[in-house]
Amino acid sequence: EFETEFPMPNFDRVDPNPAVKDIKNAKIALVTSGGIVPHANPDHIESSSASKYGKYDIDGVMDLKEGEWETAHGGYDPVYAN
How far apart are CA 8 and CA 66, in angstroms? Predict the structure, then answer.
């Protein structure tokens, strides 16, 4: 039987919040770890061990169009994300 010497994370179980009653007035954030940034990475977010995060207004954005968005992620092949 295999046993790792690397400690595995212990994730807490969190109960979901109740449903939002007034969605029209709710402020909603989309959070991703995919490294998606505006084209040319204006905040110069590092592709590995990033020291900061970006905050981008996506009001009206319905599509992540080539040339407008890209990935600054170094942990996977960026071809399909870009």
Answer: 38
What is the Cα 81 distance to its own chain's centre? 12
Nearest to 56 by CA among 68, 74, 73: 68
Does residue 37 contact residue 72 with C-beta atoms inside 8 Å? Answer: yes
Retrieve residue 27's tokens: 């402020």
Percent of the residues in the chain that have a pLDDT greater than 90, as a whole number: 46
Block residue for tokens 């991703």: 32
Distance CA 38, CA 72 (A): 10
Q: Are 56 and 30 in contact (CB under 8 A)?
A: no
Amino acid (1-letter code) at residue 38: P
Query: pLDDT (tens digit, 9 = 90+) per residue, 43-64?
Result: 999 998 889 988 999 889 999 8
> 23 in helix, strand or coil?
helix
